[in-house]
Amino acid sequence: MSPEQLLRQLVRNTDRLFGEAFFEALVANLGQALKVRHVSLTRLLEDQSALTLAVWNDGPPPQLSRCDLSRSPGLQACSQKEPSYISSGVLERYPDDPLFKALKAEAYFGVPLLSRQGRVQGLLALAHTQPLELEEADQLLLELLADRVEAELDLLDAEAQRRRPDLLEPDQRDLMAMVASRTNNLVYIRNAQDQITWVNDAFTRITGYRREDALGQQPADLLLGPERPRVEQMISRRQGFQLEAKSFRKDGSAFWLKADVQPLFDEGGEFLGHMIIGNDVTELRQAEEVLAQSNARLEEEVAKRTQDLSQANLELQLAMEQLVQSRKLASLGALVAGIAHELNTPMGNALTVATSLEGSGRELQAALDSNALTRSGLAGYVDRVNEGCRLISRSLTRSAELVSSFKQVAVDQSSTMRRGFDLALVLEETLATLKPGIRKLPIDLALDCPALEMESYPGPLEQVVTNLVLNAVTYAFKPGQPGQIRLSVEDKGKQVTLQVADDGKGIDPEILDNVFDPFVSSQLGQGGSGLGLYIVYTLVTGVLGGQIQLTSSSQGTRFTLTLPKVAPLREQHDR
Q: At the topology level of CATH, where does 3-163 sit?
């Protein structure tokens, strides 16, 4: 890539960036484009050292947030205000430089960064582990980029000066000292050489350092531990900021310092140092840590309780499914018992007639054997046989109808296959299986349903109707009270409405809002399972894809089912 192409690429990648983001993007793009091992941008301090503003490394980065320029070619570049270029052998010439030792560097190039007043304020440098040949155009490119960095640093300094004017006017020093001495906050001032020049009484009280111990010292040496690189990097930007850092007193005990750091400038814009105002927030941090630990324990307890609750809900769901299945089987068992009872009458009649005919046949045979058969006797036998056959045929026809209904309902209730069916026929067959169980009760079952084709699940629908009718038989009427249960169907286009209404005493208001919940019954513990209407709601809103509404008063109860004519397909039910 030519210098011109490289310059264009760097401009494209950094033209919309400013401040720290610009510095970081610049060193990264420059390092990748030149294919060197290390690129850094540093801010010069007064003691021939520099703080890192941005750094890029092609490999494990050396931990050098602050470097001593007196042992590197950067000092020459800064003192002469000219680029320093060593194409090979840099580690041999500067064996004590920590960066060169960490990288095992071979080549170096550094460009000093000048302020608008011509003062050196930083250094743009690159290092490589192999000899580096930079053409004159490459060096010119680096100098052009240094001009852009200088402008950015000047802009940051000007912005910092605008936001925080000089606080150390000579005629204000005594006033500031009086105010600072009366505050409980720690206050100290560091100059441009990173030396403490003034502290207040709170500083000595909080840190344990006497005033004479602190003056002339570097704040980082006195107060900071592992936080030092981060804080020094922030200070090198000469902007105001806030920090919270773990610090140390003179006796070695730790405390948390929360501070506001502001840069100080003179009237000419020359950087003077920083004022730091802070306080000891150790107790607050400890309280926050205790709170965080409590929250963590609470979260663990909540997670454990949630897991336990999820397990309990899973077990409850399994139990509910088993209860629902048991209720379905119980309903099917009651259906079998009812059909058996209903079949007893026609089958008994057929058996009685067949037995009578058998006796008549023996009498006829005896008359034939004894030559005593008369014309009138034969005619009587023929009449009895015809009447008997008619009675047997009627009884067996009735039995066949009952068996047919039972077979269809039993198959539907044990299967949830979607199929086409005549709704009126399904309802008639369902009620036919229920009538034997309530025949001795003064309750009338009525059905009003036009011929209507549906593509749905007849089994669940029959289960719903069975549960609603038996629920009304069980709870709606007092013992011996006559009543009516009426089923009516209305065609609503793509939907049908099925109403199951009774003229009984209504549902207890205390449970009216919860009748579709499991284990809700006015006779729970007295024979009621509390699952009948729960099964109804589950089947209507689930398999059948519909809705159910309930109204109830002292004059009766009405369940209104709104069902689609074509029920939604459900793989778990149709396979």
A: Beta-Lactamase (3.30.450)
